[in-house]
Structure of GP-PDE domain-containing protein:
Amino acid sequence: MVIVMFFLLSSIQRNPFGTNNLLSAEDQEEVKQQKIPSLEEIVNACKDRNISLIFDLRQPPPGHPYNESFVNVTVNAILNTSISEELILWLPDDNREEVIQRAPGFKQIYGRKRMKNDTLDAVNLSYTNLSVAEIRSYRKDNISVNLFVVNEPWLFSHLWCAGATSVTSNAFQLLKDLNRPIWLMDPDNYLIIWIVADVLALIHIIWAFVIQKKCLHRREEGNVFSMFCC
């Protein structure tokens, strides 16, 4: 979470998505004055707002004081707050069984497709890894589905209609006001439809040309027969 917050703060200078113009000068100045919060501060903020918090940890480099204990340190920080464990979505596979024992209320999220006889509660996958049929099958079996990274309104709408539980996005400003799916076609399907339409049009033109040529040929044969009779 600290990495995410740092990214949000540094993006004011780097402007990677070209969205700085959406902030007023006062808002930009306010963001620049923000400090990176501690993990416990973030957890408490989520607790106060009843917001779920998803954890996807990366092991610190060798030599870092928490290189081996980063999972335990994170779990300790969470348990030191009074947040409901049900609001914590836990992704890391490292020491997962130990985490389940220490915090059985954490929602365990898996970054892989389910296998035979799996009893998963939730998955976190790229939207390219799950078909619409798979999403609906997971939801039918009461498995929550979070998909990443979804930055386009049409894609968000498509996954919404497919039944996805939630999405991860870098374009919150584009998606936050969507109260229902928008009926837009994704570019690949749009291209396929136009290709099919062009092919059908070409076939129709060729068919019309062949029919016209046959009619002309029959007409010429009829004229020759009339001249012969005369």
In short: Residues 111-184 form one domain.
